[in-house]
């Protein structure tokens, strides 16, 4: 599954689990926990890679002020939509 901006969403949770920090569950952690649960419930499921002479792989990439990103999709004959294989941002 892919969750956009996962590391940004869960960073408040990681901060309280570091050994050098005291554990304190505050509003910021509660909000991050609620948001990541919501994101998991609506995440895009990634498909397995398929092979064959008619299978097309498409790599989309983008670069902007916020950094780089890419997504890999696969088009299988007889299907109207591509299947997501991977994302990175």
Automatic annotation (TrEMBL):
InterPro entries on file: DNA/RNA_pol_sf, Rev_trsase/Diguanyl_cyclase, Viral_Replic_Matur_Polypro
Record protein name field: Reverse transcriptase/retrotransposon-derived protein RNase H-like domain-containing protein
Source organism: Hirundo rustica rustica
């Amino acid at each position: 599954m892919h969750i956009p901006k996962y590391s940004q969403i869960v960073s408040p949770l990681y901060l309280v689990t570091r050994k050098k920090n005291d554990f304190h569950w505050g509003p910021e952690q509660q909000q991050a926990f609620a948001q990541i649960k919501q994101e998991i419930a609506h995440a895009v499921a990634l498909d397995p890679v398929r092979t064959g002479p008619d299978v097309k792989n498409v790599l989309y990439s983008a670069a902007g002020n916020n950094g780089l990103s890419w997504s890999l999709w696969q088009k299988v004959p007889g299907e109207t939509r591509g299947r997501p294989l991977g994302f990175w941002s």
